[in-house]
Q: What sequence folds into this?
């Protein structure tokens, strides 16, 4: 059975450089690759960097969807570079084509592997009472939603739910919700799987693997005279935080008062009508930080917050003169902002409570603070800190600021999860 290789190392250790070197070094006769990344510009980067291999990007052409084009390329055994969004659409045909053509997966950053399905209050009750769906508990005790075969041809507003159920992508959460779940066995169809990330222990994909019983091997990257190599995690070079800590200036002062309460600046905090005046205060604080305390401009500033429905929250928070400096709080795996050094992180991250409960109901312990920190780190490392250059950052949430300060002054979040393999080389014997 495939053991997933998690290359867990800070930005700048050479994870992507190793991946490009690996794909360049391996024989085209022995290896076929699928490189999956969040952004199209990273797809282009891989296509241009890996030579003489030719990477193909699935496209919607001649009336075919991108997924159909992916299947065509898989069937031809082509090397493929694509996005998380397309990979999430994988179905039974995708899995069989991957297995039959002996592919290696390189996943640039973790992806959304579960997601709560939007439902109205009584939708689930209606589907159950109409005998449209049923429950199927597998050998691991996980509950899946099955669509009644006699009603497969029904055309209703629940067609999307039907499709997820028919492809075994739909799971049940605590008598109250449905969860889309990327079929975990897709990762077992590959010869080898490599995930390039950092702080994997706090991320959803880690909990997803724990839920489904998928083993993962922790690795790190080492650079030598002959290029990059993968090493067992317990042999890694320890991340030197002292120098990093000296490069990060965290604002401390009266502008932080707004974030003192544990839930301040969370999504629910922004959505409370009673906090509308505080949202105005937050906008003024951010403007003050950028304009007066940093003397920032549009070429140096970067900020984020909760977007809200139709971006309504983001629009209320955006500091005057810096609207174009916004990037989503989920941004990762892009170098487009590496010149920025005045940052404002105007949010307080908590997991979707239903998605958190989904894992916990099956006995998978979730560390919400580790997850929040990993999300913050991914965002901050879009800036020039990735190149070891100094930044100044405003984090008004006391909870998020404290987590970041703890990260900068300790190794508390660097330990691999219990059960992770930490003393083995990577699974591909060619390495």
A:
């Amino acid at each position: 059975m495939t053991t997933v290789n998690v290359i867990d190392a800070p930005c700048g250790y050479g994870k992507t450089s190793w991946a490009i070197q690996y794909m360049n070094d391996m024989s085209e006769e022995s290896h076929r690759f699928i490189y999956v990344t969040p952004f199209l510009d990273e797809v282009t980067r891989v296509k241009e960097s890996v030579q003489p291999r030719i990477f193909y990007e699935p496209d919607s052409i001649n009336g075919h969807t991108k997924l159909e084009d992916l299947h065509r390329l898989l069937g031809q055994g082509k090397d493929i570079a694509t996005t998380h969004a397309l990979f999430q659409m994988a179905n039974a045909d995708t899995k069989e084509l991957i297995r039959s053509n002996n592919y290696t997966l390189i996943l640039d950053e973790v992806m959304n592997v579960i997601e709560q399905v939007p439902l109205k209050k009584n939708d689930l009750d209606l589907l159950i009472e109409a005998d449209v769906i049923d429950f199927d508990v597998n050998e691991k005790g996980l509950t899946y939603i099955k669509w009644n075969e006699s009603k497969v041809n029904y055309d209703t507003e629940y067609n999307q739910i039907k499709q997820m159920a028919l492809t075994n992508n739909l799971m049940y959460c605590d008598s109250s919700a449905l969860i889309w779940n990327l079929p975990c066995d897709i990762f077992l169809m590959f010869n080898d799987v490599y995930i390039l990330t950092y702080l994997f222990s706090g991320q959803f994909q880690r909990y997803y693997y724990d839920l489904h019983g998928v083993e993962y091997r922790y690795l790190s990257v080492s650079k030598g005279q002959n290029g990059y190599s993968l090493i067992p995690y317990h042999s890694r070079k320890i991340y030197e935080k002292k120098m990093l800590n000296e490069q990060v200036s965290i604002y401390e002062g009266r502008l932080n008062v707004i974030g003192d309460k544990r839930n301040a600046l969370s999504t629910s905090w922004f959505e409370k009508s009673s906090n509308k005046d505080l949202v105005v205060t937050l906008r003024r604080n951010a403007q003050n930080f950028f304009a007066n305390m940093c003397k920032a401009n549009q070429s140096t500033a970067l900020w984020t917050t909760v977007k809200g429905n139709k971006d309504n929250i983001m629009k209320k928070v955006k500091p005057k003169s810096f609207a174009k400096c916004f990037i989503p709080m989920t941004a990762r795996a892009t170098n487009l902002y590496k010149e920025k050094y005045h940052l404002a992180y105007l949010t307080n991250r908590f997991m979707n409570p239903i998605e958190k409960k989904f894992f916990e109901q099956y006995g998978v312990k979730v560390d919400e603070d580790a997850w929040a920190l990993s999300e913050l780190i991914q965002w901050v490392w879009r800036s020039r800190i990735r190149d070891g250059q100094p930044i100044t950052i405003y984090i008004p949430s006391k909870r998020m600021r404290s987590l970041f300060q703890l990260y900068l002054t300790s190794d508390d979040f660097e330990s691999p999860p219990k059960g992770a393999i930490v003393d083995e080389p990577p699974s591909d014997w060619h390495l």
Summary: The chain has three domains: 4-111+187-235, 115-181, 241-409. The chain has a mean pLDDT of 94. Residues 169 and 183 are 6 Å apart (CA to CA).
